[in-house]
Write a structure and sequence with these properties.
Largest sheet: 10 strands, antiparallel
CATH architecture of the largest domain: 3-Layer(aba) Sandwich
GO molecular function: FAD binding; oxidoreductase activity
Bound molecules: flavin-adenine dinucleotide, 2-acetamido-2-deoxy-beta-D-glucopyranose
Family: Belongs to the oxygen-dependent FAD-linked oxidoreductase family.
InterPro entries: FAD-bd_PCMH, FAD-bd_PCMH-like_sf, FAD-bd_PCMH_sub2, FAD-linked_Oxidoreductase, Oxid_FAD_bind_N
CATH topology of the largest domain: Vanillyl-alcohol Oxidase, Chain A, domain 3
CATH class of the largest domain: Alpha Beta
Keywords: FAD, Flavoprotein, Oxidoreductase, Signal
Helix content: 25-40%
Protein name: FAD-binding domain-containing protein
Length: 435
Amino acid sequence: MFRSIVVLLSAAIVPFVQAEDCPQNTQEVALAIKTLTASSSCKFAIRSGGHTPYAGASNIEDGVTLDLQYLSAVEYDATNNAVNVGPGAQWNDVYDVLEPLGVMTTGGRSSTAGVRGLTLGGGISYFSPEHGLVCDNVREFKVVLADSRIVTASQTSNPDPLTVLKGGNNNFGIGGLVIYPESTIQEHFKALIKFADRIDENPRGSAIVMPVYQSSAGADLILNAYDYAEPVPRPAAYNEFLAIPGNISDTTGIRNMSSLAAELAGATTHSVYFGTLTFANDLRVMTKAHEIYMDVVSNLKVKGKGDWQIYVLYQPLPPAYWRQSVAKGGNSLGLEHFGDQVLCLYQPYISWQGAEQDALFEGAGADLVNRIRGYAESIGADNPYLYLNYADKTQDPLAGYGAESVKRMKAAAEKYDPVGVFQNLVPGGFKISTV
Ligand SMILES: Cc1cc2nc3c(=O)[nH]c(=O)nc-3n(C[C@H](O)[C@H](O)[C@H](O)COP(=O)(O)OP(=O)(O)OC[C@H]3O[C@@H](n4cnc5c(N)ncnc54)[C@H](O)[C@@H]3O)c2cc1C
Ligand SMILES: *[C@@H]1O[C@H](CO)[C@@H](O)[C@H](O)[C@H]1NC(C)=O
Ligand SMILES: *[C@@H]1O[C@H](CO)[C@@H](O)[C@H](O)[C@H]1NC(C)=O
């Protein structure tokens, strides 16, 4: 089914099937599901972009990886103002088709992230403050069910998946990365809090504050991403950020979506840890989180070997992301329960080389998340939501969707997958049956 509620990894596991054996079309995906489920003992994985970092999410050992890389066609449908996207496409494939036509869609901020995984988990786009999450802009999914039937799931009879933003432009707007010394962190947190609180006044603006340490550079820095979906120089939304002096580098300018997405392309040569936490848009939590981060990084500086990096992302999770969900057909994330609360989405992104260092770096990520959660809880600034696309395998993002949503997902899983194919034969990812 379209929401198989699996999350898989993509570490260096030798593919079980050769690339030529991968399905080339929907009928072949259905045939693969039929074949794989016939014995009811062969475990398998589903891989779209393959960007989930932990091993076993979108691949499998002693099983079959259903790699959807050949289903990557992207077609713009001008009549319906939509773009039809195969599950194997990455966001750069989408932007390469749309950008020359002068249209755009709600999509990932990194060229290399996969379209399907990002969409199934929610999907945060530069256009989300104005148009909502990526999943809420999908008009129709083509789905292969557990019994191998091919069905469509849609709100309307419109035959195409992603709604295209009219008036989308070759020149996405103003965007880029700005680097500052770590000593300015308090000013960044204060600016981010105001920015998030005022996002409705300026729904074209996005900002991410990222403390960063790279072993190759050897300096504690802050890397901010500013992106404004209109080519306006120095938008007022960024006044507080623009008042922070002393930046070390600045790539902001009038840019197109593909060049901005390429600037945030993911690493392919390193192991990666993702983890996530949501808390109130509160300076006390951010200040404490940074104190804990500096402590964790000082330990990594002593023990980490070779080339490694840590980024921790602070980004607004404002009501603007969920306000339109219900009107657009609803989703499973349960965010509407947070009403008018402005939240902060936190994500450590750590990369390193060498399996012997997995415990050190994965442990550092878990330590950050657990200590910060502990502090947020102690002052009542915690929040149960965990963004699935950023979650580590040890976390339980589906539980954070809330009881009502969990009940609905369990019922859907039982209705469309009564034998539990996606619960039992697809071990990767987060399973609704275990929530
Ligand atoms: C560099 C980088 C930048 C990112 N930027 C953003 C961003 O801007 N916004 C954002 O919201 N997120 C972002 N993410 C997170 C991203 O949304 C997740 O990593 C997402 O899972 C990627 O999708 P994928 O198709 O590449 O992953 P995969 O690992 O292929 O899939 C993810 C999960 O979904 C399952 N799945 C995939 N395809 C299907 C299918 N067709 N049917 C059923 N199940 C399926 C897989 O089995 C797996 O469990 C980023 C990640 C990276 C690494
Ligand atoms: C996007 O910008 C890049 C870098 O400036 C440029 O090379 C590319 O041609 C642009 N793409 C389109 C479709 O305009
Ligand atoms: C970065 O610093 C330069 C040089 O001082 C300045 O011109 C630029 O506006 C700064 N950028 C931001 C985003 O503040």
